[in-house]
Amino acid sequence: MYRLDDELRQSLDALEQQSLRRYLRVLEGPSAPQTKVNGREVILLCSNNYLDLADHPALKRAAIEAVERYGVGAGASRLVAGSLEPVHELEQSLCRFKKAEAALVFGSGYLANLGVITALVGRGDVIFSDELNHASLIDGCRLSRATVRIYRHCDPDHLEALLKESGDARRKLIVTDSVFSMDGDVAPLREIVVLAKRYGASVMIDEAHAVGVFGPGGAGLASALGLESEIEIRMGTLSKALGSYGAYVVGSRALIDFLINRARSFIYTTGISPLMAAAANAALKVMADEPQRIKQLWQNASHLRAGLLKAGFNLGHSSSPILPVIVGESDVAFALGQKLYERGVFVSAIRPPTVPWGTARLRVTPTAGHTRAQLERALSAFVEAGRELRLIDG
Ligand SMILES: *Cc1c(COP(=O)(O)O)cnc(C)c1O
């Protein structure tokens, strides 16, 4: 008799043998610099909670107040049974924060990328996509049915060559992460904007890892480069530096009104919980009131970066607080993660297909909340574990 479970178990065994099987580990406290994972006290160095806002008292208070007033669930799609007030307040805050005409909140970053790309392009259009774009952008490209031309990572010359070849396309859309999630390097946005103008293309950027990290007040990489008005579609998440859950797109009034009418991942899904919107709105306020958080994040990142480089680890081309300790094979990444965990440091291994084959890594991300002592302990653990695995000398 055919048994689906037998096949699934075989697939899982194959993943296990290649050190590619993924397991959930239980977080028994908040996503904080020091917390408890699977029963062990650990220094958490792999979250995207860059500004340490996920359990900030002001966010918690805002969420609780929103629950008291609006309840927990949104009840329906925002277009069907009313769109909750806190979400509108958040959209107004996002417009000011991102210096944009209009904003639209989505259920998550994954949903936003799927919805925006599929709404804007289809058959007969061409998407130009960086080869290391986030999976949600890749899936949006696939689902759109547009032709997808993948350009070499951060390579404007290759992008230009592909733009030249696609002269007769109806609509052209260049899509890129602004800060790359697994490498921590940044897209050449200035060059991309110039090329877009030259070849009549639109630009969409995903600022998931740039918001709260780059730019004045943490407004993102486009803001850091003064390109807010040059980039038509700017997407970001509420779930990383902003410590909440959900995502948004900012752009022109026409763009946002079109998305309200055509983005299927906005239309056919329930609106975000009022507590998430209220918490994200509070995060924007905390970020403005406590600018030292961004400074502290960068100081912590540069301390950790210097220590890891001095020890002899390979950090690729990172120029952000995302520090990829690239080790190559999945089993080595897994073993390094395991040894760190035994020493009270939690950094999970990032393996294919999340990153290209042969580039498995530990993606190390300090937050503004880590103390110098915690970073020192983590560095010692890295040095010990790295020596045991012969990744570094000594
Ligand atoms: C995390 C992430 C997303 C997805 O956002 P969620 O809100 O977690 O669904 C999209 N793009 C990039 C670059 C990301 O890192």
Task: Provide an overview of this structure.
The protein has 394 residues and is of the alpha/beta class. It folds into two domains: 15-44 and 291-388, Aspartate Aminotransferase, domain 1 (Alpha-Beta Complex); 57-289, Aspartate Aminotransferase, domain 2. It has 14 helices and 13 strands. Strands 3-9-8-7-6-4-5 form a seven-stranded mixed beta sheet, sandwiched between helices. β4 (126-130), α5 (135-144) and β5 (147-151) form a beta-alpha-beta unit. α3 (85-98) packs parallel to α11, α4 runs parallel beside α5 and α6 runs parallel beside α7. The relative contact order is 0.16. Residues 108-110, 113, 134, 136, 177, 181, 206, 208-209, 237, 239, 247 line the site of pyridoxal-5'-phosphate.
Question: What is the CATH T-level topology of the largest domain?
Answer: Aspartate Aminotransferase, domain 2
User: What summary fits the major beta sheet?
Assistant: 7 strands, mixed
Q: Mind telling me the CATH class of the largest domain?
A: Alpha Beta
Number of strands: 13
What is the count of DSSP helices, taking H or I runs of 4+ residues?
14
Q: Give the structural class.
A: alpha/beta
Bound molecules: pyridoxal-5'-phosphate
User: Whole-Å distance between the termini?
Assistant: 56 Å
How many domain modules? 2
Helix content: 40-55%
CATH architecture of the largest domain: 3-Layer(aba) Sandwich
Provide the CATH superfamily of the largest domain: Type I PLP-dependent aspartate aminotransferase-like (Major domain)
Gyration radius over CA? 21 Å
Q: Could you tell me the strand content as a percent range?
A: 15-25%
